[in-house]
C-alpha cells in the first residue's frame, strides 16, 4: 500500500508544481523518477517520452501511467495518473470560476510572462538531457539532425505541417533500418 501512496503524492507534487504541460514535466519526472527514486532507468525514461508523445492523451498523464504501472501494476498506474491529473483539474476549475477577471489582474499577467520563460527553459533542459543520453550512432544522429532542420524550416517559414507526420517519418526510418540490418545479417 505504501508504494501506491508514494506514487500518488509524488505525481501530485509533479502535477502541482510544474507549469507548461507535459513537455515541461518530462524534466521533473526524469529528475524524480530516474535520479532520486530510481523507479526507472534513463533508457526507460527516453522510451517513456517517446511513447507518451506518440500515444493519445497528455504527455504527463501517459508518462505517469507508465511509471506507475512499472512500479505497481494497474493500481500503481491508477494512483500515478490520478496524482498528476488532480492538481491541474482543481486549479483549472478554480480559475474557471473567476476567469473573466483572472487575466486582467496585473500580478497574474506578469506571473504568466515569467512562467513562460521558465517553461521554455524546462523544455530545453528535457530535450538537452535526452540528446545527451541518446546513443550516438550515425543513424540516430542523422535522424535527430534532419528532424531538427525540418522543424526549424517549418517553424521559420510558417509552413503548415503536422509534427505527427515528422514522427511517423522518423518511425518509418527506424523500422526500415531494422529491416535493413536484419537483411544484412542474413546475407
Number of strands: 0
User: Which sequence of SSEs, written as H and E, runs from N to C?
Assistant: HHHHHHHH
Structural class label: mainly alpha
Distance between the termini: 53 Å
Percent strand equals under 5%
**General shape:** globular
Helix content: over 70%
What does this structure look like?
There is one protein chain. This protein has helices at 2-17, 22-36, 42-54, 59-97, 99-102, 106-133, 138-157, 163-186. It is mainly α and 187 residues long. The model has no long low-confidence stretch (mean pLDDT 83).
Compact description:
The chain has 187 residues and is an all-alpha fold.
Tag the structure with descriptive keywords.
187 residues, mainly alpha, 8 helices
Layout of helices and strands:
Layout lengths: L1 H16 L4 H15 L5 H13 L4 H39 L1 H4 L3 H28 L4 H20 L5 H24 L1
Helix pairs in contact: 1-2, 1-4, 2-4, 2-6, 3-4, 7-8
Amino acid at each position: 500500500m505504501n508504494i501506491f501512496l508514494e506514487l500518488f503524492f509524488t505525481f501530485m507534487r509533479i502535477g502541482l508544481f510544474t507549469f507548461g504541460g507535459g513537455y515541461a514535466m518530462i524534466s521533473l519526472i526524469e529528475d524524480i523518477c530516474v535520479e532520486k527514486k530510481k523507479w526507472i532507468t534513463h533508457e526507460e525514461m527516453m522510451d517513456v517520452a517517446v511513447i507518451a508523445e506518440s500515444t493519445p492523451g497528455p504527455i504527463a498523464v501517459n508518462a505517469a501511467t507508465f511509471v506507475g504501472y512499472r512500479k505497481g501494476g494497474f493500481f500503481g498506474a491508477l494512483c500515478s495518473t490520478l496524482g498528476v491529473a488532480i492538481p491541474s483539474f482543481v486549479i483549472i476549475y478554480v480559475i474557471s470560476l473567476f476567469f473573466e477577471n483572472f487575466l486582467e489582474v496585473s500580478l497574474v499577467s506578469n506571473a504568466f510572462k515569467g512562467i513562460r520563460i521558465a517553461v521554455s527553459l524546462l523544455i530545453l533542459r528535457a530535450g538537452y538531457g535526452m540528446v545527451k543520453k541518446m546513443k550516438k550512432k550515425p543513424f540516430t544522429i542523422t535522424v535527430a539532425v534532419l528532424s531538427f532542420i525540418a522543424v526549424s524550416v517549418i517553424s521559420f517559414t510558417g509552413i503548415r505541417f503536422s509534427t505527427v507526420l515528422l514522427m511517423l517519418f522518423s518511425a518509418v526510418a527506424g523500422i526500415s533500418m531494422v529491416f535493413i540490418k536484419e537483411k544484412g545479417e542474413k546475407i
